[in-house]
Amino acid sequence: MNLRVFLIGGFNKTKYLANSLIKKGHKVTAINNSRENCLALTEIDKLTVFHGDGSKPFILEDADVYDADIAIALTNSDADNFVICELCKKKFNVKKTVTLITDPRKIDFFHSVGIDLVVCAVSTISSIIEQQAFFNELTTIIPIGESRIKISQLPVSDTAPVVNKKMKDINWPKQIVIGCIQRGEKSMVPRGDTRIHAGDILLLISSDEHETAAVQELAGR
Questions:
Q1: What φ, ψ does residue 84 adopt, rounded to 5°?
Q2: Domain endpoint, select from 70, 101, 132
Q3: Are the CB atoms for 21 and 5 separated by under 8 Å?
Q4: CA distance 71 to 97
Q5: Are residues 77 and 137 in the same domain?
Q6: pTM reported for the whole predicted model
Q7: Fewest C-beta in 10 Å: which of 54, 88, 106, 178?
Q8: Residue 165 sits in which domain range?
């Protein structure tokens, strides 16, 4: 299924996401308020680029964000990202909205107003530290150099073998980190004693090569 995806703000994250999504056959549009960034982004084959402030309704309208499948807010401002997601969801009927935030205290509020996925680097790193015995193991979890972190959403079905298990009792590969659990309208940073429930959505942080092993453990195949 090919999706219409809008990447709003940001630069390095936008470049990586755009390349990854386009390779998978999705139609991607980037909106950026920096002319310099826009010029650099136009070098990405098949990426549509619009110059402007994505928190302004007329810019989103000009970019034809109406009825898009996903809008991802990637600016450095939590307030701007909030406005972008609210506009996309409520004015332009975007099906799913995703945002990065810097303040973990805002996660529940962002979910409460209907933003579908909220990714907080602070909460994710905190979870990584708590799930691993030693801080120096982070270098084996967070790929460096040419490697890339992959973030995926894994829904937990009623029949998944991990249902009702504690995080510490699940045989995840050690290179896999569950950064966040979305449960209904709430999100939480998992601990060792956190139980997985049917209907949970797990935010999985991994490299491509370890994602398959995590899915196999989750689905029991």
A1: -60, -50
A2: 101
A3: yes
A4: 5
A5: no
A6: 0.60
A7: 106
A8: 122-219
